[in-house]
Amino acid sequence: MTTDLPTYGDLMLPVVLAIQALGGSGTGREISASVVETEGFSEELLEVTYDGRDKSVLLDRLDWARSYCKLGGVLESPRRGLFLISDLGQEIAAQPADEATERLREVDRKVRRDRHRKKTSTAGSQVNDDTVDAPDDDEEWRETIVSRLHRLSPDAFEHFVLFLLRSKGMELKRVGGSGDEGVDGIGTAPITSVLSTTVAVQAKRYEPSKTVGRETVALFQSDATAAGAEHGVLITTARFSAPARKAAMGRHPTIDLIDGDRLADLCLEEEIGISRRPVVDEEFFDRFEKLR
């Protein structure tokens, strides 16, 4: 099945066209979701994973396609996980598909030549080149924490999700229990310092490679309505299909979807189970030497 999947090189043009269609910028998740929808990749292809890992091979290759586009100057990344199309990228996107593909192959070859020279020039040193070239928005820590959350029991995962949302200011009561297909938590979420909204929560501890479909979202919307909620939050260790995301915003109550990657980001924001490491930018201080 892996041989049926496109290479990261094959995905570079779809990535460029996706970010252009998104308005010239987008997060890694938005770009990947757009490519999956536009290219019509099946759920079967998305669920192909590496041996011993929960990471989807196709999504991993999309990460590398974005990374190579960035390294080749086709995309810019003003901050981790956020991408902008560059002048070069717009130029390539405007060309016919065969010409654009050839331009991106040239970009790919140049990036790989530069990597090879870098590795050669640093041979024998303690520089770890893999850390330089790894996709910016696909850090190993995300995969590690999602995998760890998936190893929790269903009950434990529900407890964790309620704890995480409480850390964001929600006041929640647990309802249902393990195996319950309805609402797992009900309570209030702050909108402003004086306003709040009733919110229903559902936690789905699925295989990280699994895709949560529209039916799951629609069922939760019905359960949230029955519980009297004005909004819903559906959290999973897996990912959501494009129809699921559309359904979440297509009827009342609207549902905020939090997939495995976003769940990991929330853990980092609140430093729950993971700690931020301060990094000193020594070059930042050089500018003060130039002041007169």
Q: Which class of the largest domain in CATH terms?
A: Mainly Alpha
How many beta-strand segments?
10
Question: What is the mean predicted local confidence, pLDDT?
Answer: 86
Domain module count:
2
Structural write-up:
Strands 4-5-6-8-10 form a 5-stranded mixed β-sheet. A 3-stranded antiparallel β-sheet has the order 1-3-2. Strands 7-9 form a two-stranded parallel ribbon. The chain is an alpha/beta fold and 292 residues long. Helix content is 48%, strand content 16%. The protein is globular, with a radius of gyration of 21 Å. It folds into 2 domains: 2-133, Arc Repressor Mutant, subunit A (Orthogonal Bundle); 145-270, Trna Endonuclease, Chain: A, domain 1. Helix 1 (8-21) crosses helix 4 (57-71) and helix 1 crosses helix 5.
Q: Summarize this, please?
A:
This protein has 292 residues and is an alpha/beta fold.
Topology of helices and strands:
Elements: H1 8-21, E1 25-27, H2 28-39, H3 43-46, H4 57-71, E2 75-79, E3 82-85, H5 87-93, H6 97-121, H7 129-133, H8 140-150, H9 154-167, E4 171-174, E5 185-190, E6 196-204, E7 211-212, H10 214-226, E8 231-236, E9 239-240, H11 242-250, E10 254-258, H12 260-270
Parallel strand pairs: 6-8, 7-9, 8-10
Antiparallel strand pairs: 1-3, 2-3, 4-5, 5-6
Helix pairs in contact: 1-2, 1-4, 1-5, 1-6, 8-12, 10-11
Question: What would the keywords be for this entry?
Answer:
three-stranded antiparallel β-sheet, Arc Repressor Mutant, subunit A, 2 domains, Trna Endonuclease, Chain: A, domain 1, globular, 292 residues
